[in-house]
Design brief:
Blueprint lengths: L1 E5 L4 H12 L3 E6 L14 E4 L5 H11 L3 E4 L6 H6 L1 H21 L4 E7 L22 H20 L2 E7 L1 E3 L15 H6 L9 E4 L11 E2 L1 E3 H11 L6 E5 L5 E2 H12 L5 E4 L8 E2 L4 H7 L8 H14 L7
Parallel strand pairs: 1-2, 1-4, 2-3, 4-5, 5-6, 6-11, 7-10, 8-13, 9-14
Antiparallel strand pairs: 9-12
Helix pairs in contact: 1-7, 2-4, 4-5, 8-10
The structure holds nicotinamide-adenine-dinucleotide (NAD).
Nicotinamide-adenine-dinucleotide (NAD) binds next to helix 1, helix 4, strand 5 and strand 7.
Length: 323
């Protein structure tokens, strides 16, 4: 297949592009490198440096690549930043995404896989979170992704665009070549691994009085390689739909830090801080629908194995992608 990957210089997009290339697909990566890295772009792909917010640029890129399908990873994805600068999030994630859909319509491209997020659910009353859980985002990031999901439905109804929208929970891990190197890192695992790498003196825990067994927040960690597998499967699905993707198991902040200690063989001192506003105690996915309907079955369910892959990558890339 010919697959057009927006955001393919970023963390998740680069690993998905690698999986597509490994199975022999032709891949065009479209990225403005605002957050991504040139070093994360697989040399077997065609790279176009462009911005979704420039309608001409995305239109020309889609016309040139003439893909069978699009995987849309490009977005801004920092919850805290979205609370400071909502314009950036609605502009890039909604307007930029709409430019992509318009370019697809103009060029007769009819299939898209979209990176949505568990942030569309806000603070759910019931956990595990399935696809019918009410969607009440509590920040502009989650709202922008929910808006794009609604836009997808309209483009399906009006223009016949087939979509699969994946609500990822917490992505972690690395492939052998590609890993997580966000310019501003807010994710727990890479931040904790910064301690054994010598980049931080301690890990921080926000809240130890949550109603969970050890008092710290529980999240659902999904390996980036399992996520890539889900995207490949999505290309075989004819139905347009929304799927939650996690492993269904929850891991607490303290358990993550313990796992990082085991994997890195470092004591990792911690500093306990008060809770952050809006942090739900437990966010875990019900992924039964994806398992049943697209045949997805995550291979990496052991947190030590996931963290080991992340650790190997950061140790072999002490300065990230160097750009
Ligand atoms: N990483 C996670 O834990 C997680 C969880 C849930 C959802 N997601 C979603 O998955 C997707 C990928 O996440 P990630 O962690 O790989 O993020 P990332 O920041 O590493 O990758 C996003 C890429 O998109 C590019 N980009 C952004 N705006 C662009 C634009 N206007 N034009 C062209 N390129 C643009 C960036 O340069 C970057 O390379 C995002 O849509 C994010 O919302 C990620």
């Amino acid at each position: 297949m010919k697959v057009f990957v927006t955001g393919g210089a970023g963390y998740v997009g680069s690993v998905c592009a690698e999986h597509l290339l490994d199975r022999g697909d032709e891949v065009t990566i479209f990225d403005n490198l605002s957050e991504g890295h040139r070093g994360a772009v697989d040399s077997r792909s065609t790279f176009i440096q462009g911005d979704l917010n420039d309608p001409k640029s995305i239109s020309l890129a889609i016309a040139t690549a003439a893909p069978d399908a699009v995987m849309h990873f490009a977005a801004n994805a920092l919850v805290g930043e979205s609370m400071q600068n909502p314009y950036k999030y609605f502009h890039n994630n909604v307007y930029g995404g709409s430019n992509l859909l318009h370019a697809m319509v103009e060029n007769g491209v009819r299939q898209i896989v979209f990176s949505s997020t568990c942030a569309i659910f806000g603070v759910p009353d019931v956990v595990p979170i399935d696809e019918n859980t009410p969607k009440n985002p509590i920040n502009p990031y989650g709202e922008s992704k929910l808006m794009f999901e609604k836009i997808l439905r309209w483009f399906h109804d009006i223009h016949g665009i087939n979509f699969v929208s994946f609500r990822y929970f917490n992505v972690a891990g690395a492939s052998q070549k590609l890993g997580e190197n966000h310019r501003i890192e807010t994710h727990l695992i890479p931040r904790v691994l910064n301690v054994p790498l010598g980049r931080s003196t301690h890990a921080e825990i926000y809240g130890t009085d949550f109603p969970t067994p050890d008092g710290t927040c529980i999240r659902d960690y999904i390996d980036v390689r399992d996520l890539a597998a889900a995207h490949l499967l999505a290309l075989t699905v004819s139905k347009s739909d929304f799927y939650n993707l996690g492993t269904g198991g929850g891991t607490s902040v303290k358990e993550i830090i313990d796992s990082c200690r085991r994997v890195s063989n470092h004591p990792i001192p911690v500093l306990e801080k008060p809770r952050r506003a809006g942090d739900p105690p437990r966010l875990v996915a019900a992924s039964k629908k994806a398992e049943k309907e697209i045949g997805w079955n995550p291979a990496f369910r052991n947190i030590d194995v996931i963290i080991e892959s992340a650790w190997k990558w950061v140790v072999s890339h002490p300065n990230g992608y160097n750009d």
